[in-house]
Amino acid sequence: MNIPQRLAPKRKNVQDFTLSVVNESNSINESMPSSSSKRQKKVTEKRLRRYRATMTVAIYDRIDRALNQRLYLLAITKSSNESIYREFKVLGQTANVYTVTITHIPSCTCPDYAKGNLCKHIIFILHRVLKVDRNSPLIYQQALLTTELNEIFTKADLQNNDSSVLAEQPIREAYYAKTGDPDVILTSTNVTQKIIAADDECPICFESMINDENNIIFCSTSCGNNMHKNCFEKWRQAKSSINELVTCPLCRIEWKTVIEKNIDPKGYLNLAAYSTTNDYEEEIDDEWMFLNYW
User: Fold this and answer.
1) Radius of gyration of the chain from Cα atoms?
2) What domain of life does the UniProt record list for this protein's source (predicted)?
């Protein structure tokens, strides 16, 4: 009958050890955060500029300029080290070349952006080149999140390039010759002159063009059709006299006319002298125009 008395303390030790293990386990659990608390403390990316909930009148004005002024794309640079960084060379309204960078804080080298404004060149790239909807709030944000940049670039990469946003071929070639930029878009769009047949007539005077090779020009912008030089000069003068756009008499596409301009004195690369489609305007401050318009 003494055996139970000797075993009793051992049972007490077992109980004490078990209690110690339980207490230690509880202490460890209390010191370690739960998985739910980890999820609650997950870091959320912060926008580097204040979010704009609505579009201001000034931004609306710049969106209108981005859609309606003559802005064109020269080159695109995609960084191999940074998936959310792209650089674009833009031919501005005055034929100056600006660099637009789309990343967390979109930027541009133009004077308007230097004054702290979201310029038309950034909006042009976002909407016309990267295909961000013009009604999207991303158009007028001064800073973009990583998720937004990934969405913009992924969507843009799935779409075909829009040739209408490209600067004309001679300007792109001139830009490449001056800078050697390997990212310039040099896809050829040359139009071939059509062969003059025996029954072909000038679309302006309706006379034959056979045996008159030295007095022939053709539409090098679009259709390749031929006409007399002196006839076209009269056509051009008539259009200009009533302030109408000079076009090809047949396809009605804007006619290429060689334009001479001085190099921009403000330090920007200016390619107006290489344009063959339109005269470029003198540079006007977008902020000045906005303040005086409104």
Assistant:
1) 34
2) Eukaryota
Q: Which residue has the tokens 């509880």?
A: 26
pLDDT in tens, 238-248: 988 998 888 88
248 near 261, Cβ under 8 Å?
Answer: no
Rounded distance between C-alpha atoms, residue 241 and residue 261, angstroms: 22
Distance CA 43, CA 39 (A): 9
Give the predicted TM-score (pTM) of the model: 0.59
Q: What digits encode the pLDDT tens for the residues 178-219? A: 888 878 776 545 577 889 988 899 999 999 998 887 789 888
276 has pLDDT over 70 = no
> Mean pLDDT throughout 20-28?
51
229-238: list long-range contacts, CB under 8 Å, 24+ apart: 231/202, 231/204, 231/205, 232/204, 234/204, 235/204
Sign for the pseudo-dihedral over CA of 287, 149, 158, 134: negative
Mean pLDDT confidence for 251-266: 58
Q: Give dist(CA 217, CA 249) in Å, integer.
A: 12
Q: Would you state the structure tokens that stand for residue 174, as one six-digit string?
A: 């001139």
Are the CB atoms for 184 and 75 separated by under 8 Å? yes
Protein fold of 199-255: Herpes Virus-1 (3.30.40)
The span from the CA of 116 to the CA of 130, in Å, is 23
Q: Per the structure block, which two tokens stand in for 135?
A: 């009604």
Task: Give the containing element (helix H, strand E) for 107.
Answer: strand 107-108
Residue 287 pLDDT greater than 70, yes or no: no
Q: What distance in Å separates the CA atoms of residue 225 and residue 182, rounded to the nearest whole number?
A: 34
Query: Is the pLDDT higher at 170 or at 4?
Result: 170
Where exactly are the structural domains of the chain?
A: 47-188+256-294, 199-255
CB of 280 within 8 A of CB of 94? yes
